[in-house]
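Researcher: Quick one. two chains, 738 residues in total.
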Amino acid sequence: MADNILELKNVNKTYNNSVFGIEDFNLEIPRGAFVTLLGPSGCGKTTLLRMIGGFEIPTSGMILLNGSDIGALPPNKRPINTVFQKYALFPNMNIYDNIAFGLKLKKLPKNEIDEKVKRVLSVVDLEGFEKRKIDTLSGGQQQRVAIARAIVNEPEILLLDEPLGALDYKMRQEMQLELKRMHEELGITFIYVTHDQEEALTMSDMIVVMDDGLIMQCGTPEEIYNHPENAYVADFIGESNIFNGFMTGEHEVTFCGTAFECHADFPVGTKIDAVVRPEDILVVDRGYGNLNGQVESCTFKGSHYETVVTSGKFEFILWTLKSYQKSSEIGLLISKDVIHVMAYDMDKNHYECVINDSFEVVFEDITFRPDITKLFPGTKLSGGVLVGRDGKKLNVAGKKCDVSFDSSDADLSDNPEEGIVSGIIASIIYKGDHYSYTVRSENDWDYYVNDDWLWNIGDRVSVIVPEEKLEYKVL
Amino acid sequence: MELSLKRKYLGIPYLIFLFIFVLLPLFVIFYYALTDGTGHFTLSNFGHFFTNSRAIGTLIYSMVIALITTAICLLLAYPTSYVLSRSGIKGGAAWLIIIVMPMWINFTLRLTALKEILSFIEGNLAFHPFLNTIIGMVYDFLPFMVLPIYNSIEKMDTALLEAAEDLGAGKREVFFKVMLPLSMPGIVSGITMVFLPAMTNYVVLDMLYNSTYIMGSLIGSYFSAFNWNDGAMVSAVLLVLIGLLTWLTGRVSDDADREGARL
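Model:
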């Protein structure tokens, strides 16, 4: 068994009994690792960190530190220290007093405190700053003091809550390397929270990609980047071209109307998402690649050109070293090694519903009104009562029923009354010729919709599904 | 340039007001305080004040009442503000309004009501004059202590309290080492707003103590005996004293503000 310093077991955190904060969360953190919780704001990463720090108590589940549950301990009883987002340095104390705060509480002798403060100041490169006031420091220096104040207590785990968010770009890059150096030097387990994928890729031993309180993928930076497990991760980490397609043979996948060789071996006919990174597509002469295309635009980005190529109705983004003339005809070569194939998980929407007294099929968000006699073949409605083949009254209330529809059959509208349900667009993934949307309703249910039009994250939309495209199945 | 000149003219009415009702009376007070009955310069009025045991006694008595009032207000206001701003009770702001609301009612009206209530409870106000005075003062000044303290606790960054806890501080240590020092600006401005007015407030004493043992009526008694010079000297001493106190608390709160600004 691996040596895990921290284990989260079935951790749940709910707020006001409504929307889930964290849902059945399981994670193992190896001793001494630099682990990053990565996700957009509101994905639950900060809540998770606060539970590890002791500022929030999990609704249920266990947080095991070295095998014993610390879930209910207050922060001051945990061998864990935190570097806060806005540093949270005490403004009424100088740097020495800030750093010595924890040591003084432990009632260490003065000379020992002096020595530790001195040593930790040298770790963060602020020798001789003891007597300075907090407000005479720059953001980066305050950051270092915050780190020093935390690590001087020699915690078993250091928690960092977006500590570089307030710094400028150059400073941030410097601090990333600095933090990595400190991690190696101190040998403490770091748990780092950020929404910045570059930070995560640069520093981490292990990245946990989160969305909506769930783990989307957990792995090394290389695994996350090169082998994303789903379109969400592929889209969130780095730039990518993602296309819908399906398996058409052993180690053969078809997308954009073209068959490609690939390493994946899902059964023939499986719907998939294919991911190709923009730096992995090669430009060749027309006719020599897998596809032919036309250059739409070519933009200089410093280290490369971002070239947009259309092939039929599909759009590719390429990072090229050369610039290409707009409208020039080129070939695109996509080799077996750079195609990453993932099982497609946003194909169909399934909802488990209950039939009520008035023959409606009810889900938390929606009430469907199917022709009830079609659900139970051979029955008919007479005088508001469902009658079976044998002429007897049939009681169907409370029976469960699965309602489903294809993502591609649904449409979006900005008129909230128009569709079967309304919600907020929670994610967008571009699929070359259409967008794949996740619409999240007020009750926190997700609806997958493929739409040709571009909406924005946060737009309030309603999901339109034509009556005839809804499929009902009595369970 | 032209505009700024025109704007300056807008200040003229106030300037006239300032001159007639503030500067001129001040000048008159100091003139009388530093002259004898014939208009010659003298410091003897000053000597009169400090050799008059009744005048000194009244001064000290006013200070004691103001001190006790301030202390009780502080002891009541801090926990109240803490609960309202930090405990997450429902409608904290509404509770604050209820506490502050007496300020919207006329001052003497409020005291008259309090007087009725107290005499109903105690039978006769004369039984506990000192207690009544303190109750009246605290009742009057409490909102001025609650508001600044509430604000300073309210705007405090919760992360600072969490940081203290994170570094190993228990609830008591969080309070004494972080929360209390950081709410100092609020405490200082609360003290300023209660102590100084309490020093010179004579309405409360007048209504609840039925006594002339106060600075205001001391001055009045000199004036009604046409002793303008001694009366003016008492006013002048009081003025200088309050000026001094204002300056002192101002300095302390400046320091505290500078700390508070970094919150």
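DSSP finds 13 helices and no strands in chain B.
Researcher: Thanks, that's what I needed.
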